């Protein structure tokens, strides 16, 4: 059982909603990444998504776009991301780390190298926004053979055939995009999300995390009754932007702790 699967099994056993948090590696500076990861865990995050900086992050709104730009100014790329995970694992062996990004950096180093290096540094899986599940059966098999999960996005517009394909090749959890748009955009219709997740569960047995647009404790709490986890990214990046770099970990930890408290109430 993967570290991600173990985490969701434990959450279910304790009747808890998972908290999945996202930051971009190298933002606001390379030295900030590992302290921020530890701050997220201290605040109550159950799964960490670590964004691989990319120059054309098509699914991201302006907040995460800016984070990518700041990281790229520092020259942070996928090999640096591996090293951040390796450093994080020196003192944390239990919190899953999912690498999130786009196909280009993976293709550049090669799929086999990506899988092997992810496994070697202690990552637990990947979300590759522009890898369609219909074309990922071989990649998913390589990931599973290395003990890694390949996690796919599902959207309000996903067809029944797409959902079935995600059920076939995905593992770890499924990520439901609650909005027709980019990260951080709009407001979530909780009733609509609940209805859509019920449809997805008829095909997908994996835990379902909901993201894109969760900005506060109230929204997170409202979704706790319908999702296995909530995913927060843009709002955390805004906390990082608003703080002095040295204070960013404390600001992030305090914000995440508020979300965790709301989920647990």
Tell me the major beta sheet.
Answer: 9 strands, parallel
Mean pLDDT: 93
Sequence stretches where pLDDT stays below 50 over 5 or more residues: none
Structural class: alpha/beta
Global geometry: globular
Number of helices: 12
Helix content: 40-55%
- The total count of strands amounts to 9
What's the alpha carbon Rg, rounded to whole Å?
A: 17 Å
Kindly estimate the percentage of residues that lie in beta strands according to DSSP: 5-15%
- What's the N-to-C terminus distance? 29 Å
* Biggest sheet strand line-up: 5-4-3-2-1-9-8-7-6
Order of helices and strands: HEHEHHEHHEHEEHEHEHEHH
Question: What's this model, at a glance?
Answer:
This protein has 265 residues and is an alpha/beta fold. Helix content is 48%, strand content 14%. The chain contains twelve helices and nine strands.
In words, what does this structure look like?
This protein is of the alpha/beta class. The protein has twelve helices and nine strands. It has a nine-stranded parallel sheet. α2 links the parallel β1 and β2. α11 runs antiparallel to α12. The chain is globular. The two termini are 29 Å apart. The mean pLDDT is 93.
């Amino acid at each position: 059982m993967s570290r991600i699967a173990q985490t969701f099994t434990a959450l279910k056993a304790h009747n808890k909603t998972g908290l999945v948090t996202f930051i971009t590696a190298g933002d606001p500076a390379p030295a900030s990444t590992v302290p921020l990861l530890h701050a997220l865990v201290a605040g109550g995050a159950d799964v960490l998504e670590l964004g691989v900086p990319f120059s054309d992050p098509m699914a991201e709104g302006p907040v995460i776009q800016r984070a990518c730009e700041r990281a790229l100014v520092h020259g942070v790329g996928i090999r640096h991301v591996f090293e951040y995970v390796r450093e994080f694992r020196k003192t944390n062996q239990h919190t899953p780390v999912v690498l999130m990004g786009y196909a280009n950096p993976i293709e550049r180093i090669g799929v086999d190298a990506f899988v092997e290096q992810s496994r070697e540094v202690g990552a637990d899986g990947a979300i590759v926004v522009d890898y369609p599940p219909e074309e990922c059966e071989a990649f998913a098999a390589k990931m599973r053979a290395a003990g890694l999960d390949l996690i796919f996005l599902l959207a309000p517009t996903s067809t029944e055939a797409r959902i079935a394909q995600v059920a076939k090749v995905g593992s770890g959890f499924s990520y439901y995009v609650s909005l027709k748009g980019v990260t951080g955009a709009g407001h979530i219709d909780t009733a609509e999300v609940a209805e859509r997740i019920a449809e997805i569960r008829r095909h997908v047995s994996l835990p379902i995390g909901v993201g894109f647009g969760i900005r506060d404790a109230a929204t997170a709490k409202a979704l706790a009754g319908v999702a296995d986890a909530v995913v927060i990214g843009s709002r955390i990046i805004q906390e990082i932007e608003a703080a002095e770099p040295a204070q960013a970990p404390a600001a992030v930890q305090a914000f995440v702790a508020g979300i965790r408290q709301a989920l647990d109430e």
